[in-house]
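Model it.
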Amino acid sequence: MNIVRYTVFLDSISKDYLDKQNCRNYNDLSQTIVFVYILSYRICSLFFEDSIDCFVRFKVKKMLSLVVYLLRTETPNLFHEKGCLTFEEDFVEGNLVLPFLEATPCLEKLQQQLKQHIRNTKIPKKESTTPVFMNVLNRPRTGLKVPPGTPEDLSAMKFTRQIPKTNYLKPSTERKLELLSATNRINAMRLLKDANENAPSCFYRRKDSDNSVEKEKPKATFVGKSVPKFKPVEVKQTAASTLRECARVINMEEKEIKRLKALAEGGTDPASILKFQEERRQQQKEEELLKIQEKHLLALLSRENAFIAKQSLLNDVKAHAESVRKEKQELYDKLEKWRENHNREMMEIVVKCREVEQASREAFNAMVDEKRQKAAEVTEESRQLKAQLVKQREEETGRKIKLIQEIKTLQSLRALPSIKDFDPTESSGLGLLCEMSLAELKERLFWTKMKLDEETKERKSVIYRERERQKNLINETRKALEEYKASKLVVKLLHIANYLRRAVFPAKSRQRLQPVSSPEIDALRKKLEEQKALRSQKGT
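Modeled.
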C-alpha cells in the first residue's frame, strides 16, 4: 500500500480519532495519519520484538490510546464506511478491511507490551514515614499489692531481707532528665548574658524609670472624632442626561400650568373647600364605624351558625357509623361466599391450563421440526446464490480491468495541447452579452473605486455636520436648564420667606364621634339574638 494514495481515507480516520479524544485543533494530524497507517497495515511486516522500541520513543500513552481505538469492535465498520466514500466496495474489502483484520493479533500483542512498559517505567510511590515515639517515660505501672495483715506482736515478724535504699530515690531516667534540664538552663542564661553585654546600643531595652513614668500617666479621656468632610462628587453631565433633565423640566411646567388653569376655572373660596373636606372626613369615619359594626355582627352570626352545624354534624356521624357497621357485616358475608366460588373456579382453571400446556408442547415440537426443514432449504438456496454472486463479481472485475486498460491506452495516445498566447484585450468568446476583456475589467474597477472614494468623503462631511449640530443643541439645552434652576431657586426662597411671616393656626379640637346606627345593623343584631336562642334550645 502507498500512504499517499490513501491520504483522504487515513485523514478521515485520524480526524475521527482526534474527535474522540476531544482535541480542539488538528496540529498532530499528519503524525496521527502516519501512526494509523503503520499500525493498521505495516505492523505485521515489522520485526515485532523490536517494534516496541520504536514506539517507546514517542508518547507511550498516546500510542496506547490509538491502539485501543483501533481494537474497538466498530473500527472495521468505520474503515468500510470511510473507504466506500473514496473507493469501490470490493477494493475496500480486499485492500483496506481484510489487511486490518489480519493485523489485529499484532495490535493486541503491542497493547500488552505498551501496558507492561508503562507499569515498568512508573515511579513507585514512597511509603509514608511512621513516627516512632520515645518509650523512655512510658514505664509499665504495676498495681499496688495489698499489704499483709498487721500481726499482734511486731517482734515476731521477721523480714527475709532489708529494704534497698534505691526504693526511696527517684528513677535514674528522671534524674538524668532533670540534670539535663538544669544544664540547658545554665547554658541558656550564660548565652543570654553574653548577648546582652555584647549587643549594640540599639538593642538595649528602655530603663525601668520610663516604665514607672508611663504607669503614673493618667488615662486619656475619649475624644470623639468629627465626621470627615468629603468633597462633593461632581456629576459628569452627558448629552443623554441633559436631554432627560430638559424633558423632566418641561413636563413639570406643563403640570403646573394645568393645575393653575383648574384652580382658575373652579371655586376660589378656600374656606368652603376646608368645610367640605371636614364634612367628607366626618362622613368617611361614620361609614368606617358602620362597616366595623356590621363585620362584628356577621362574625358573631357565623359563629352561632357554626355551633348549630357542628351539633347537626355529630348526629349525622352517629347515624352514618351505624349504617357502616351493617354494611360491613354484609360485605364480610359476601366475601366469604366469593372466596368459596373463587377457589372452585381456580381448580377448574388449573386443570384447563395443564391440558393447554400439553397441547402447546406438542405444537412446539411440530413447529421446531418444520423450521429445521425450512432452514436446510434456505441454507442450500443461500449457498447457490453466493456462488452465483461470486461469479458475477469476477465477471464485473474483468470487465472493469479491460475498460481501465482501454482508457489508459486512449490517454497515452492523446496529443499535448498547443500553447496559446494571452492577450488581455481579448474576451473569452463565449457569446455572452456581459463578457469583457481583462483590460476593460481593470478600467471599470478603477472607475468604481473612484466613485466609492467620493461617496465615502461625502458621508464623512455629512456626519461631521450632524455632530456639530448635536453639540450646539446640547450646549443650548444646558444653558436653558441653568437659567430655569436659578429662577426656581429664587421662587422657592420667596415662598419660604412668606411662610415664615404667617402666623401659626391654632390646632383644631377633635370632635368625639357619636355612636351611629343604621337599619342594616339593627337587622343583623336582631338575627344574632334569634340564632343564640336557637342554639340554646338545641343544646338543652
